[in-house]
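May I ask you for just one protein sequence along with its backbone structure tokens in two labelled lines?

_____
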Amino acid sequence: MTILAIAFVILAGLLLWLLAAVRGRWPVKLALICAVPAFGFAILATANSLRGWPTGEEPPKTATFVWGVVDEPDPQTGSSGAIYLWLATGTKPRGYRVPYSRELHKQVEQAAALTKRGQPVAVTRRASNRHGGGGPRTRGAFDFYRLPPAQPPRKLATIGVNR
């Protein structure tokens, strides 16, 4: 990522230098001078999602559990811990980072064990916690449950077909 950023800065600098050195229409040059840095900031803002890093956004209300990784809190380093969930809505999986809780840790381990055995697992996000408030960032804010195994479609009976 660092090399990509340096390459973009060099390319943008050369373009801006070329625009300033060449005679021509200043309104077009001014538009390009403003557009190049704006484009750079847009790339910077979206770079983490392009790399597949988990987002801090709220997970979807319902999704299929793909996998989970638990980063337990560590008092020696001061890490508060986190739980990373890979959830799929439809066919698009996405990584989510949620705060660590012991209850969610246990749920993720159980869901991962079921997933290893080939059992599909669904996740729903609760609207609030047991203390009456909060949202998706509260402790134990998810419910995991097994999905029934997929059934193949039934064959249609053919009536009056001659062979």
User: Anything to note?
Assistant: The helical segments are 2-21, 26-50, 102-116. Residues 26-50 form the longest helix (25 residues). The radius of gyration is 25 Å.
